[in-house]
Amino acid sequence: MSTGRSCIEKVVEFSPTAMPDIYNLGFGDLCPDGTMDDAVNSNNGDIIKVLATVIRIIRAFTQLRPHIKIMFAGSTPERQRLYQRILKMYHAEFVKEFIITGLIEDENLYKELFFNPQKDIFYLAFFIKRIY
């Protein structure tokens, strides 16, 4: 629940992908019809609290399923940059629990690289996997 300027119900969803043991992380506002809107910018003033909650959910999910790799990407370029900034800021803490990689396009090929917070690379998506 986002409790900033108003109360907005949020949802985090883990969906299996066509690739074995890789789940997509979806996150957004819960719509009245039960669907999720992952493109809305609710601008409710509590983004740090909301993202901290998402991180706690990821931790709990991966504790129950440590073999799973989670994939996520922003629904907009701005949101993707936000996720990248968060990974850079908290990288030292995150790598104690997770292996973090990113997807890039290089010479018309897609490559998965270890996430490097020191380099200014635009990642198309991110992957995290619990260290166990």
Strand fraction equals 35-45%
Helix content: 25-40%
Record field, number of beta strands: 9
Order of helices and strands: EEEEEHEHHEEE
Judging from the principal axes of the Cα atoms, what is the shape?
globular
> Quick one: biggest sheet?
7 strands, mixed
Overall residue-averaged pLDDT value: 93
State the secondary-structure class.
alpha+beta
User: Mind telling me the C-alpha Rg?
Assistant: 15 Å
List low-pLDDT spans: none
Explain how this protein is built:
The chain has helices spanning 47-64, 77-89, 91-94; strands at residues 2-3, 7-8, 10-16, 22-30, 36-37, 69-72, 98-106, 109-114, 125-130. The model has no long low-confidence stretch (mean pLDDT 93). Helix content is 27%, strand content 36%. It has 132 residues and is of the alpha+beta class. The strands form two sheets. Strands 3, 4, 5, 6, 7, 8 and 9 form a seven-stranded mixed beta sheet that branches. The protein is globular.
